[in-house]
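anyone seen this seq b4? input:
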Amino acid sequence: MAPPFTLSRRRVLRSLGTAGLAALLTACVQSTPAAPTSAPSAATPSTSAPAPPTVASTASATPAGAATPTVQPAAAAPTIASVSTPKQVARNRTLILQSVDQPPGQFLDVQLMNPFQTGITRSGYQFAFEALYYYNPYYTDKVCGPPGVACQNGEMPWLATSYSYNKDYTQVLVKLRNGVEWSDGQPFTAKDVVFTINMLKEHAPKLIWSIDMKQWVKQVTAVDDHTVQIDLNNPNPRFFFSYFMFHEDVGIQIVPEHIWSGQDPTTFTNFDLGKGWPVVTGPWKLVQSNAQQKIWDRREDWWAAKTGFHPLPAPERIVFIPFEADPQVVPLVVGNNVDNAIPVQTLQNFQAMFGQNPKITTWSGTKPPYGYMDWFPWGIGFNDSKPPFDDPEIRWAINYALDRDQIVQIGYDGAGDKTLLPYPQFPALMKWLDLVESAGLYKKYPIGTHNPQKTADILQKKGYTKNNQGMWTKGGKTFSIVFNMGSNFLPIAPVVIAQLRKAGIDASFKISPNMATLLATGDLDGFFNGHGGSVRDPYYTLRLYQSQFSAPTGQPATYPYRWKNAQFDQLVDQMAMTSDDDPKLKDLFLQAIEIWMQNLPDIPLVLNYHRIPLNTTYWTNWPTAENPYINYANFHRTAPLWINEIKAVQ
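predicted toks r here
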């Protein structure tokens, strides 16, 4: 009797074979993130420190032994000097953040602050523009949001004070807060909201969010300076939440009419330091932008402080530095040169950081999983319009070959969680996910079952036979899959590949620098990917799989699955018009998710965690698992909430 098969890291790599190892070693090219919350590449710890960030205009307040901030210039990147020399700000009053957006080592968007154009990095605009409302998907019975901020069920009014729908959800009435001002002193009014929505409608599909506004908004009216009426083309009980309640990477920024009127928003950069652009409502002014850093200084005349709504944030300056991979992140954080870094994928790096600097922590402290659950579950997908992956039975055969527990154990040393559905396990979503269990759908569609014999049964039924190498073949061709992916999937990809090869599927992966293009055009077989979607009710995630977002291979598609099911489309369309407190939504969801499970348009694997190291040398009161007033990703739209709450150590 053969001994039981166990999968070690060494055996994973060995199982890839020579070709697989060569691909792994030669394809480590940084890839464009598959989506906004895709984490950067994994790597091993480094003991040689890179040049820390430039904070040339910040007075030294660095403790003994810490490096003095400097940086090597980035080649071939545009450089824009500040309009004047920024004032001196002490290090212990400066918050240093690292951008998650690539390319490494430099900013290429130094003259771009238009949030509706592609190419802009999340290096400040995400916290400079404030929301009408914020939403905290991590809220609990004890902690809803930051202390002193009105919060109910995770919803926090900010630039607005309330929103309400008419009976059939075809109209939204939004009340704005009195006393809100733009950074140039002009009042923030309903006219700015009306202008922003109409601007997006008029320039669809060229601007981000423009298609959505054209699809949903019939007309928008300023009833008075502090009241906005939005009439919709069709019922949509989630309209305000979807677009104007910032959560994760979602939310439409309101822009000032008096600055943007008369501009062509498809080319307008919204950048001119001499004119004080960008003009925003947040307490920050951009004072320097170049390839190495972007410096934002606190404004003492922030409307919230003037009206007593919220005190000024403790940091007097925020410095954004460019993306770097794991090896560079470790010494930057250990050397107290970054306070909030990118998500780190190699878990061993955390032990290295904890051992070298006791001031480093995470959402879960110094214990696994070293972070918080993101809204971005990871899995493998296919071009579902391309044979043989257009056959749901083939996708099920692949699913049966996978052992998710092993993927978590080996890929993340057990510091993670598997998932059988394409949803994050946020508190507000659990009542919906529990319905799948209580309805018996996991028994009917055993996604979590690891059973290579079922893989063999399906492939034999489809006419496949095994060759001398133990690989399934048909018509003289080996059943092979090349999975394209970003480097952020390196912790789990070798495990998945080894499991598929053990089941007789000739699988391999490659890191694709043009990943975004391949996903858009469908010029691939399979891919590792993740996606955002639902955070409090099940509609948004299912919407990603609708036929309306598909396209023939070679033509751009909004989402990469290219799966079509008319009945599923109809059910999800009905969900769109049904509020989350309507009992009908339960039945619609169960019908739609059953079709999804039966067809498996993609295969969920693991929950995604933002494993972001924090340095508490200068700043404390970060959100934690015990105090989850919001997540602490600096690249999310909700970043102003924690930036406003952190406190100086001294």
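DSSP finds 20 helices and 25 strands in the chain. Residues 1-77 have pLDDT under 50 and may be disordered. kinda curious what u guys think
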